[in-house]
Design a protein that fits this description.
single chain, alpha+beta, two-stranded antiparallel ribbon, globular
């Protein structure tokens, strides 16, 4: 069964989530880390070693491996379900906006999966660039970012 949610419903859910996670009235700058914490999510930072170097964010399904560098070696790691993994370069202060965007994007995958538990494939977020697509790994849907 597919679940269809209108843009207005998504906005209402997001507003409610921000209200309970960050307070009301909402702050001018949403604390996306507080939203992740409110949802009970684990956020990890790893140096990605995927063949597609545009991948910068990953939402784990608990079954699919992510290739990362650890101790100078490529390793395929299976993270627990609903773990968000962000590429470690996003910790640099100059990447703050991209980190916040990527974290919010990955949180949205988890919320979609919670709304429709039959939709649980792992998700990647690629570098935001005109003409790039953010593909679900099973390619069942995508967002074209033009």
């Amino acid at each position: 069964m597919q679940v269809y949610v209108s843009n207005r419903e998504i906005e209402q859910i997001a507003e409610g989530l921000v209200h309970v996670a960050c307070g009301k009235p909402p702050p001018k700058r949403i604390d996306i880390d507080a939203v992740a914490a409110y949802l009970g999510l684990t956020v990890r930072y790893e140096k990605f070693a995927e063949s597609d170097q545009d991948k910068i964010g990953f939402t784990s399904d608990g079954k699919s491996a992510l290739t990362v560098f650890r101790n100078g070696q490529k390793q395929r790691i299976i993270f627990p379900k609903e773990t968000i993994v962000l590429d470690s370069f996003l910790r640099y202060p100059c990447e703050s906006s991209r980190r916040r965007f990527t974290l919010a994007h990955e949180i949205s995958h988890i919320l979609i999966n919670r709304a429709d538990p039959t939709h649980t494939a792992p998700c990647f977020n690629r570098v935001y660039d005109k003409g790039k697509e953010c593909l679900h790994e099973d390619q069942s849907y995508f967002w074209n970012i033009h």
